[in-house]
Design goal:
Elements lengths: L6 E6 L3 H12 L4 E7 L3 H9 L5 E3 L2 H5 L6 E4 L6 H10 L4 E4 L6 H14 L4 E4 L6 H12 L5 E9 L9 H20 L3 E7 L15 E7 L4 E7 L7 E8 L2 E5 L7 E3 L2 E3 L6 H4 L1 H16 L8 H20 L3 E2 L11
Helix pairs in contact: 4-5, 5-10, 6-7, 7-10
Length: 339
């Protein structure tokens, strides 16, 4: 593919994230255009496609991938649909940006991993967008430099204003702490070996039956201890913060030091309302990096191995919720394709 060619992207799933990616590719990303949108709700897909020049609407992802106008696929459908969509993309040898999770569980993620290995080359980038956040990027560069010495502990706070209807205790691990799982592995360059989940008395803000907040602890193969406070009904807004405690100093990100006002005996600022607003720039940078790499004939960013590893960590985390911890993370040997 030449650099002059505009990448024709099929966006699979046109819900909140899918629609936002359609907007992003159409209005923000350079070198790409939306060639197809796919959704079981064909009326919704058609309504979106009608507003984009040269875009076709489909109810079936395999049909969209067979189109000569489609060069790559962005998967933003619900997690249980990812495996079938990924395997269809492999059948056409199409590059894919797959929103997390890669798949909802470790066995299905392993099937995807093995199918990609059978191709003999990488095709998947998993949408762990925090790797493209500027603050996380600066923290990664600092840790990699060794300036502060070896990381000893990593503290994380992950707070949402309110949980969606039907949100379960397991979803705190499977849908929220997944980001800390990936960013821990990326920041430290270490694998998570065990998970412990501790639950205080639930907040009065939490719906009946939801264990919220939770305190999650990771141990790594590099000897670093990592904790995550996950609180999805904090009512205060959306906060993601991290602090690395190293041998010779600490580094902290996510403080939201924007405009602070002092007036009438009070001082303060605002808290980001949601994850889209907090990580909008990271999403933009992630999609642009994927498009640029695809046009060069490369696949970069979080791999199918990263998606599988996080699925396995989630599995241990959900077991730790019910069995007590620590629960060991079970991983297959890392294939050569992902080393």
């Amino acid at each position: 593919m030449t650099q002059q060619h505009s990448l024709g992207v099929a966006v699979v799933g046109t819900g909140r994230m899918g629609a936002d990616h359609v907007r992003r590719i159409s209005e923000v990303t350079s070198g790409a255009h939306v060639a197809a949108v796919v959704d079981l709700d064909t009326d919704r897909a058609k309504a979106i496609a009608d507003g984009l020049e040269g875009c076709a609407a489909y109810g079936d992802f395999a049909e969209a991938m067979a189109s000569p106008d489609v060069d790559a696929v962005l998967i933003a459908s619900p997690g249980p649909a990812h495996e079938a969509t990924l395997l269809a993309a492999f059948a056409h040898d199409l590059p894919v940006l797959c929103e997390k999770p890669l798949t909802p569980d470790a066995p299905s993620a392993l099937r995807v991993l093995r199918a990609e290995q059978a191709l003999g080359h990488r095709r998947v980038q998993v949408g762990f967008m925090r790797r493209y956040d500027r603050e996380y990027g600066r923290l990664k560069s600092l840790l990699d430099s060794g300036e502060l010495g070896r990381p000893l502990m990593l503290h994380n706070r992950h707070r949402n204003p309110a949980s969606a209807p039907g949100f379960t205790s397991a979803m705190l691990v499977n849908y929220s702490v997944t980001h800390e799982m990936d960013v821990t592995r990326w920041l430290l360059g270490q694998e998570i070996t065990s998970v412990t989940v501790l639950c205080p008395r639930p907040s009065a803000n939490a719906p009946e039956g939801l264990a919220d907040p939770q305190f999650v602890v990771f141990e790594t193969d590099g000897g670093t201890l990592v904790d995550v406070e996950i609180y999805v009904n904090s009512r205060l807004g959306y906060q993601v913060q991290a602090e690395a405690v190293c041998e010779n100093g600490t580094a902290r990100i996510g403080e939201d030091h924007g405009l602070f006002v002092s007036s009438d005996g009070r001082w303060g600022g605002t808290v980001t309302p949601g994850f889209v607003e907090r990580f909008e720039d990271a999403y933009d940078r992630q999609v642009q990096a994927w498009v640029d790499a695809t046009r060069r004939g490369e696949v970069t960013g979080p791999s199918a191995w990263d998606g599988y590893a996080v699925a396995a960590i989630c599995e241990a985390g959900v077991r730790a919720q019910t069995e007590g911890g620590p629960v060991e993370v079970q991983l297959v040997e890392r294939p050569a394709l992902y080393r």
